[in-house]
Amino acid sequence: MAFVEVEEGVRLFYEEKGQGRPIIFIHGVWMSSRFFKSQLPYFSEKYRTILLDLRSHGQSNHVHYGNTVSVYAKDLHAFIGELGLKDVILVGWSMGAFVVWDYLKQFGEGNIHSTVIVDELATDFKWPDFHIGAFDMETLIAFMTEIQTNRTPFLQKFLASMFNNELSAEDAGWMLGEVTRMPESIAGSILFDQSIVDYRDFLPAINVPTLLCFGRHEKVIPVAAGEHLHKNIPNSKLVIFEDSCHCPFMEESDLFNETVNCFIQKGV
């Protein structure tokens, strides 16, 4: 196991394999690097492939401060610096997309080769002028309450909703183990922050080549979210995965891996 200290008392876990241009996979809220287990063997044949656990997630240590998207982006910047990575490809799934965008907003694109965004909106919140958002205040409050009072049954249903096909008992088990690693207090804190960040105004400023990957059968984040991103991010390409929900890198892993590799090699 490998760890990097990005701040005093904050150690991030990562798994690394392969050589070449670095590609970092960044997971969603409550999730972990383990969800990218189908990417490590494939991408490590051509790239220095890194699966990263964000602060307080997975095997990174759990700290009761700094659990915001903007701090996670700062952690990512420190991580890249500590490892001396250059010309990096960032793959952000769900909340991981927010971390990618916040990184670009804070630190610029100088050290970024390209980005891959998987199933995320420009903002999760259903603002008065953004009706395709995933959460209104009532829904967010309900989620926050469930996390505090009914977490395991709630997350079992939440995990099932992320997939187009029914999960096996084995997969449902290890996934539940991953998303319940952190204390409920941290889970509620980061859920609130990631639900109200808003990158709509920033999207047109993104110039690095960007691949947008969306599942056709998404139950929370519609394909319209990908179309909105494609319209507003210059130099972007939208790909719809017809047999996937929120996790095309798991449900259609071969196609996803090949699509991302082709994008990296050829650009938009």
UniProtKB/TrEMBL annotation:
InterPro entries: AB_hydrolase_1, AB_hydrolase_fold, AB_hydrolase_sf
Gene Ontology CC entries for this record: membrane
PANTHER family, per database record: AB HYDROLASE SUPERFAMILY PROTEIN YCLE, MONOACYLGLYCEROL LIPASE
Domain AB hydrolase-1: 22-252
Keywords: Hydrolase
Record flagged with keyword Hydrolase: yes
Upper classification of the organism: Bacteria, Bacillati, Bacillota, Bacilli, Bacillales
GO molecular function, one term: hydrolase activity
Signal peptide range in chain numbering: none
Highest taxon listed in the record's lineage: Bacteria
Name used for this protein in its record: Alpha/beta hydrolase
